[in-house]
Queue: 4 jobs
Job 1
Amino acid sequence: MRRGVFRILVALSAFVLAAAPVAHADPPYRPVGVVETVFSQHGPWPVTAQPGVGCCDSTGAPFDVWYPANLGAGGMRHPIITWGNGTNAVPSQYAHLLEHLASWGFVVVATANRNTGTGADITSAARHLIDAAADPSSVFHDRLNPAAVGAMGHSQGATGVLNALADSGGLIKTAVPVELPAQAFCKDPTRCADTRRIGGGSVLFVNGADDALISPSSQPPWQPQGLQSNRAYYDALPGSVTKAWGTLVRANHNDVQGQPDCARASAPCTTGVFGYLGYPTAWLVAQLWGDAYALGAFTPGSGEFYQPNPNWANQIGAAGR
C-alpha cells in the first residue's frame, strides 16, 4: 500500500515534469536519462526544516532535521537519511541537497559535528530519530521506519558514512559517499575508510572528475598502494554488497555544497549541486523505499545509470550475493 502510494507520487512528478514549459536559458546541468530527470526535480512533499532540533552528539553538537511537512500522510512511515559533513563544514552548507532529499519523503538528520570521519555521530544522529519515533510527545512518533536507514556524506563525511555502514550493526542499510578521500588523506587510523570491512547493504560512490587530487577515479601512479581511488574502494567491497559507482564529468570537490550553484559553496566548485540530485536520490528511493521504478535505473549493465551519458563517466555496478 505505502509503496504503491509512493509510486503514484513518482508518476505524478514525472507527469508534471513532462507537462512543464521548456526553459529558454540553458541550465548548468541538464539531466539526460528519464529517471535522473524525475529525481532531479523537487519531490512531491513540502519540506519543514528544523535546525538544532535535538541535543546532542558526542561532541555536544546539535542535530538539524529536514522532513516532509505532512509527515506520516496516508499512514506512511518515512525512511531516515543521516548526513555526514565534510571537514569543518556544517549542515546548512548542504541545505539545498538535504531539503531535496526530504522532498522525496525522507526524514533527513545531520549532526553539526565538523569532524564526522569515525561515523559514530552519523550513526547516533539516526538513533536520535529512532528514539524520537518511540516518544509519544515527538512529531516523529510512529511516523518513521527504523528498518530503512541510509547514510550520505561528503569528503570526511563520505569516510564517515562508510564507517557507519560497517560499524552500525546493520542499522544503516545503504551509503552514498560523495567525493570520498583517498586513504592518503586519512591521518587518524580510527577514521580511515576501508570498504573491505563492509559486510552487507549497498553503496553508491559518486565523485567529480575535476576532484582528481582528493577523490580520484583511478589509482594515482605516484600512489599505487592502498585504497587511493574510487575504483579501488569500489573493487574492495565484498561480493555480498550491492554497489555502484559513477563520476560526474563537470564537478569538483565542493560542488555538492551548491545552493544550488557555486555562489555560496566553498572552493573548488565548478557548477553546483545539480548533478548530485538525480541519481543519488533515485538510489536512496530504490534502496530505502523499495521502489521498482528507481531501482530499475541501477540494474547492473542494462539500467539507465550505466548507459552513455555526457554528464557521467565510469558507471559500473554489481548486485550483492
Job 2
Amino acid sequence: MEQVRNVRQYLKKRYVMYFITTILILTIPFIRINGNHIFLLSFDHKQLHLLGVAFDMQELYLMPFLLILMFLAIFFMTTLAGRVWCGWACPQTIFRVLYRDLLETKILGLRKRMENRQLEPDMSLGSNKLKKAISLVVFALVALVAASNLMWYFVPPEDFFKYIQNPLEHKFLFIFWLGFTIALIAIVVFIKENFCIYMCPYSRVQSVLYDNDTIMTVYDYKRGGAVFDPKGIKLWKKPEVPNAECTGCEACVKICPTHIDIRKGMQLECINCLECSDACTKVMGKLGKETLISWTSPQSIEDRQKV
C-alpha cells in the first residue's frame, strides 16, 4: 500500500537535505568569483565579500540592509512553512543527528533503538561509559573541523591554514577556534535539544509568526481524537473519544527529539522534523489508514481543503 511504501519518507528527505546543506557550508568558503569569495567577512583585511564582489570598510553601510533583508526572508519563510529551518537545515539539528543517531546509536550501540528518543542509555554500566567516552572523542574531532569551517567565513581558508602553522603569532585565532569547538561540544553533547527549547531565539519568535495557513506538523484530532491533559502529563493510552483512530501506541511521542506529544497541538518545542509523522505512518499503514500526523496547516484540518 502507498502508506506502507511511504514509511519514513520525511527521514530520507531530511537526510538528503542534511547532506546538501553540509556540502554547501563546507565548500562555500573555497569558491571564488573573479578572485573574491562568495561570502567572507574578513576583519583582518577589513572587507566584505558577497557573491564575488569585495566591499571595503567605507562601504559596510550595506551590512544593515543585508541583515534586514535576511531577517525578512526568515520571517517570510516561517510564516509560510513554520520552523522548517530548524528540522531540515539547522546545524544544531544536523549535529544532533550525527552524534545521537549515527555515532551513539548506529555505530557504538550506546542507544538501543532510534525509535525511542525518550529512553536514555544506562550510564551505570562500564561498557556504556567507555562508549560515551569514545563518542565524545570522535565528536570533538568533528567539532574541531566544524569550528574551522565557521572560522573560514571570517578568515579566508588560505590564510587560516597559514596562520595555524604559527600559533604564537595568532593567539586570538586559536582562542576563537577552540572556543567555538568547546561551545559546539557543549551544545550538542550536553545541552542537547534544550538549546532549541530554551536558548534559541528563533523558537521564541516563530509562534507569533504563525497563522492558521502556516504549514507545520499537525495532528488530525478530528480523526485521531483530541488529547487534552490539564496537568501536562503525557497520556500513555488511547484517547477516550468515540471512534478515535489513534491507537495510543505513543510512537509519535517516543521518537520525538524534543520530547513532546504532538497530539496536544502546536507547541514551542516542535522543530518540524516530522519524525512523528513517519512513526505514525508506519503504525497507521499497517491498519490500512492514512497517517494522523502530516505536514499541513491547521486550517486544512478544519475545512479538509488543500493548503
Job 3
Amino acid sequence: MADTARARKLAKRISQIVASALEHEVKDPRLARVTITDTKVTGDLHDATVYYTVLGERLDVEPDYSGAAAALEKAKGVLRTMVGQQTGVRFTPTLTFMTDTVPDTARKMDELLAQAQAADAEVARLAAGATPAGEADPYKAPREESEED
C-alpha cells in the first residue's frame, strides 16, 4: 500500500493532466465549461475520483451537468490513457467522475447568510424605536440607610 503523500501527489498530477486534456486534447463542446476542482486517489493507487463542476454561461441559465457527465464518460478511456502515459505509474488508476457540489453549497450558504443579516437588520431597526415595557431601570436599587438606623 502506498503512503498518503504519494497518493496526494498522484491526485494532484491527475488533476493537472485531466484539466489540460479537457482544454487542449478533447474536442467535445459539452466540456468547454467543465472545471476540474479536486481529485482523490485511493491508498492502493488503483482508483481515482475526479471532481468537476460545470460553469454556467449566465447566472439565470442552469449549467448542463448531464451533457458534461455524458461527455466525460465518453472521453474516460482517452483521459485514462493520457494519465497513464504522463504519470509513469505501474498501474494506471481507473477514473471516476463526480459532480462537485461545493460551489452550489457555498452559494446556498451565502443566500442563507444574507437572509440572516437582513433579519438581524430588521430586529435592530425595530429595537431602535422601542421603549422598555416597565421602568427604565428594572433592577432594585440598594436600600439607602437612614440616619435613624
Job 4
Amino acid sequence: MKNTELIISGELDGEDPEDRADAGPEAELRHLVFGEAQHGLRLDQALVELVPEFSRSYLQQLVDLDGVTINGKVARKPSSRVKAGDLGVIELRPTPQSQAFKPEVMALEFAYEDEHLLVINKPAGLVVHPAPGNWKGTLLNGLLAHDAQAMNLPRAGIVHRLDKDTSGLMVVARTRPVMDALVRSIAAREVGRQYVALAHRPWTGSRTREVDAPIGRDPRNRLRMAVVDLTKSPGKSARTDIELLQNCDQGCLVRCTLHTGRTHQIRVHMASIGHPLVADELYGGAPAAGMQRQALHACRLSFVHPVTQKAMDFRAILPVDLNQALSKWALRYNEN
C-alpha cells in the first residue's frame, strides 16, 4: 500500500452504506491515512493530495464547518500540521459556498437587453454577489436562472456592484469579450455613473463640490471604509463630483458623479464633508423621512456599447421609498 493511499471506509473502491447513512443523504464519509508524503504539511494541503478531486477552497470550508477529524478529534484549523500515521475522517457534503452559484428564478427589472449585455435596475435589499451571510438569493443567482450561459462567465458577467441597500442601474455582460471590454472601460473611467442621494444637514457654499480623497479600510473599524492618509494607511485614490439639487431645513438632495469606484465611495465621501446619507448608520446617518436604508440610488448609467459602438444612456426613476422621503421633506427630483 502506498503512503498516500486513500482508504474509503476500509476499501479502495467501495463505500460503507452505514457511513453514508450517518453522514446524511448528500454527504459521504471518507477515512484517510496520512503518509510520509504528507508529514509536516498543512492540513488543507494534505487533504488536497489525498482528496484531489476537490478544490483546496472547498476542503478548507469543510474544516471550518468541523467536517474533518484527525485521530478522533475535530480539526479546527486548515493551517494545522499533520504527521505520518495520522488517521483522518472527512465528511464530504455541500457547503453554503459550494452551493452559492446556483440558478434561482427571481423577478429582475431589465432596462435593456441584447445578446451581448444587460442593464438591470436593481432594487434595494438585493445582494449582488454571494458572500458570507448571503450565499443565496443574490443577483448572481438570478442571472444564472435568466441565462444559462452566465455560468460560463466569471461572476455571471457582473462587472461592477451596488451595495445591498443601494438601488439603481447596473450593466452586466453576457459574453466574455464584452465582459473584458466593459471592465477596461470602467478602469479607463469611460463609463458614466450618476447617483441621487438624500443627506443630512442643509448644504452650504458652492452648489458643486469635488471630493478627491483616497479611501481605505477604516483602521479603527474594519467593517467600515474611510478617507485615509496614504502616507499612514493603505488605500486608493477616489474622486466624486457632488452637485446640490435642492436644499431644505432637514438636509439636502444631491447628485453624485463617480470618477472612481471604491467600496462605499459616495457614502464615505458624503460623510467626510459633513453630510452622511439619510439612514446610513454605518457612516453616521440616521433613519429619517421614512427611509430605513441608505438614501442612495444609481439614477444614470452611460457607456459605449462594446460591440455596436453605439452610445448608450439609461436613466432609472426614483424608487417609491426615496420618492416618499423627498415628499416628506418637501423636495422634488428633476431627472434633467
